Amino acid sequence: MDELVTAYQLKTGRTLSMIERDVEPGQPSGLYEQYLLEDRIYFPRTTSPAHQALVVCHELAHLLLGHTPRSHGPIDSNVVRRVLGRDHYAAPAEREAELFGTLLFHELNLEPRAGAEERVAPALTHREGRHA
């Protein structure tokens, strides 16, 4: 993932920050923000490394594909250019980002590491609450 972040920064000339966050059931697994000179990807703290990587790839796909975000309330246009949350796949941009992000994930061969099993249960609980 570090190499992917470096490649993105070299290609775009923008800083990319990866930020873990706590995610409650019903909230989007990941999201991204674009500021004037920096992009940020937020991903779930309590899930497996493989799921974290998949969420990051999905959000990175939104950035690379130049998707226009859905509105999440008032946003200061002088500070934030775009904010996007991932919470469903009904929108064409979500399906496109999911496909591209999944292909990127597989291409990078981002496999689970040893000891990941204790982080899988919270991810399943999150997804169960989100889709219930």
TrEMBL record:
It comes from the Bacteria. InterPro entries: IrrE_HExxH. Residues 36-100 form the IrrE N-terminal-like domain. This is ImmA/IrrE family metallo-endopeptidase.
